[in-house]
Specification:
heterodimer, A: 99 residues, alpha+beta, Phenol Hydroxylase P2 Protein, four-stranded antiparallel sheet, three-stranded antiparallel sheet, 39% strand, globular, B: 524 residues, mainly alpha, two-stranded parallel sheet, two-stranded antiparallel sheet
Chain lengths: 99, 524
């Protein structure tokens, strides 16, 4: 994870995930890797927001799931997001504002 | 049958990285034309004034390739159809909060399903006509997504159509019924644009800027009201939407980065399409506040969270880097958040005798919820209206409008909106073009009309068409027949076919649990 050296006001970014048994480990992994995040629930949905940046790490998700997990699988869980998808690679997905 | 000889266990071949696969399977499959000019191969890229210097600068953050696309889409469909089957087999429709909930679905499925098909067609066109393999492939995936959404919506709808009214003729309704001309005209406006304007209209303004307002509270509402099929198709579709949102956002950044001169053109499109999209989402505003028996959040709350906080406070700060300003007339939308759902529902309530859904006056409990959700406006402006209507109903005079409304030339919504800053005066704007007067409902719609009057003068306005004799005849029954509506589709919910069936079905269920006879217990 990058150090939080940005000087601009930390605007929130966020991701909305379906609340399901399959996605619970994914949500737990995001919570663990983004300690500054806030989680809110509405029926069927979990909304996670964090200042400036959210990272979803393959390794952490695999640990929580107890099996291999491709970052492409995140497409099965995501309902919506705000921010830019800055990186979507084999090992992590990063949502952050560009400017 | 001969079995293939068992293969020796070899080490799993190392897969290419996501980045390398994406390069190989999209960019790597592109070619340069040799016997035609590039301008002949891609003839539609110049006339909107957009300049692209380098198509390869386009980035797809999803790095999606066709194999990954098919694998995950197949999995999504598998899950969805399992839910639809389970719902049908388990009589899931009886677990809805109330049959009146389905009115929200009738508005949504009737309005949106045909739009998905329109989007499918136009994205297929973009997949052919963009001069770079990155955006072409992203548009191709979106095109396939959109036709999948149409199909899944039809399947969801068919589950309810067997038992409830108003869903049997959605395709013809879309072409003919007055209120469906609102989403229809939006999409036809977009489909008749050039490729780049369409991308900003649908990819950016609709998918990124407003999709959260349209889909997220809707699906959450479905979940909260026991509508599993809608929730599941919604989530399944919405997970595609996150890719579509990315396409929209990449599109706008790409256009802004390519050439300084693109900025002004793009700003004009954002200004236009924000207001166009915002007017269409007015249907969602009334759904949230009036049509869901169990409420999720008010329109005002939803607008503040998804639009003001996320988009104005987040996205537009980012776009300011390129010189992009928040959309024109956004301040009118913000001021209207206290009024919008009430004004739109009042229109639908009065005209539901000619729609494929039914309406009902809010109960006292519902009005109390509206009071606390809208402390500054509901008790002052809208409760008195409903109290009066309650008296009408008690005297047997449930209110239906007798005449036909004046429609806005741009958004095509009946002109029931009020002046900015004055909730008691109706807003009506007039513009003259080549000797004729055209009416619009707001500053936003007037600005859009005056920017392209040649386009909007051609609008097919349902009310004008009825008066011109193009809709089956001059009387209400003739028009309803031409719409393809049947008895039970329209009007007041209480006492309607759906309501009567619902009460009977729930009554049976209640009787079953309240007094189980010995015979039933034996369960033979």
């Amino acid at each position: 994870m990058s150090d939080q050296t940005e000087t601009k006001a930390a605007r929130d970014v966020g991701v909305v995930i379906q609340e399901s048994e399959n996605n619970r480990p994914v949500i737990e992994a995001i919570e663990q890797d983004n300690p500054a995040c806030t989680i809110s629930h509405s029926p069927g949905l979990v909304r996670i927001t964090a200042p400036q940046r959210i990272v979803i790490t393959q390794e952490t998700v695999e640990e929580k799931l107890g099996r291999e997990w491709e970052t492409h699988e995140f497409q099965m869980a995501i309902v919506s997001y705000f921010g830019n998808i800055q990186e979507w690679d084999d090992d992590e997905i990063v949502i952050a504002w560009d400017h | 049958m001969t079995l293939a000889p068992e293969q020796k266990k070899t080490k799993k071949p190392k897969k290419l990285s996501m980045k390398a696969r994406y390069e190989a399977l999209t960019r790597g499959l592109d070619w340069e034309p040799s016997y035609v000019q590039k301008s002949e191969m891609f003839p539609h890229l110049d006339y909107e004034g957009i300049t692209i210097h380098d198509w390869s600068a386009w980035e797809d953050p999803f790095r999606l390739t066709i194999d990954a696309y098919c694998k995950y889409q197949a999995e999504k469909d598998k899950r969805l159809y399992a839910v639809l089957d389970g719902f049908a087999q388990g009589q899931g429709h009886l677990n809805l909060t109330d049959a009146s909930y389905l009115n929200a679905m009738k508005v949504f499925l009737g309005g949106v399903t045909p739009l998905e098909y329109g989007a499918h067609r136009h994205f297929a066109y973009l997949a052919r006509h963009f001069a770079g393999p990155g955006p072409r492939f992203a548009a191709l995936c979106q095109s396939i997504d959109e036709i999948r959404h149409m199909q899944t919506e039809i399947h969801t709808l068919s589950n309810y159509n067997k038992l409830y009214s108003g869903m049997h003729n959605w395709s013809e309704n879309h072409d003919r019924v007055w209120y469906l001309s609102v989403p229809k005209s939006f999409f036809e406006d977009a489909l008749s644009c050039g490729p780049f304007e369409f991308l900003i209209a649908v990819g950016f303004s609709f998918e990124y800027l407003l999709t959260n307002l349209l889909f997220v509270p809707f699906m959450s509402g479905a979940s909260f009201n026991g509508d599993l099929p809608t929730m599941t198709f919604g989530f399944s579709a919405q997970s595609d939407e996150s890719r579509h949102m990315t396409l929209g956002l990449e599109a706008i950044k790409f256009l802004l980065e390519q050439d300084e001169a693109n900025v002004e053109i793009v700003q004009g499109w954002i200004d236009k399409w924000f207001w166009r999209s915002y007017r269409v989402t007015a249907l969602v505003a009334q759904m949230l506040d009036y049509m869901l028996p169990r409420k999720v959040m008010s329109w005002k709350e939803s607008f503040e969270l998804y639009f003001e906080e996320q988009m104005l406070g987040g996205l537009f700060e980012d776009l300011a880097f390129y010189g992009i300003k928040p959309p024109r007339h956004v301040e009118d939308a913000i001021a209207e958040k206290e009024l919008l759902s009430h004004q739109v529902y009042w229109i639908l309530y009065q005209f539901s005798f000619a729609a494929s859904f039914t309406t009902s006056a809010p109960t006292d409990e519902h009005m109390d919820w509206l009071s606390q959700a809208y402390p500054d406006t509901f008790d002052k402006h809208y409760r008195p209206l409903w109290e009066k209507e309650k008296k009408n109903i008690a005297n047997g005079g449930r209110h239906f409008a007798r005449g036909l409304p004046q429609l806005c030339q741009v958004c095509q919504i009946p002109m029931g909106f009020t002046e900015p800053g004055d909730p008691t005066t109706l807003c009506q704007r007039e513009s003259e073009f080549e000797g004729e007067i055209y009416h619009t409902c707001s500053n936003g719609c007037q600005w859009i009309f005056e920017r392209e009057p040649e386009k909007y003068r051609q609008a097919w306005l349902p009310v004008h068409q009825i008066y011109q004799g193009n809709c089956g005849g001059p009387s209400v029954p003739e028009v309803l027949e031409w719409y393809g509506l049947k008895d039970g589709d329209a009007g007041e919910y209480l006492g309607s076919k759906d309501h009567q069936n619902w009460v009977a079905w729930q009554g049976e269920a209640a009787a079953d649990t309240a007094a189980p006879t010995n015979e039933k217990k034996a369960g033979a």
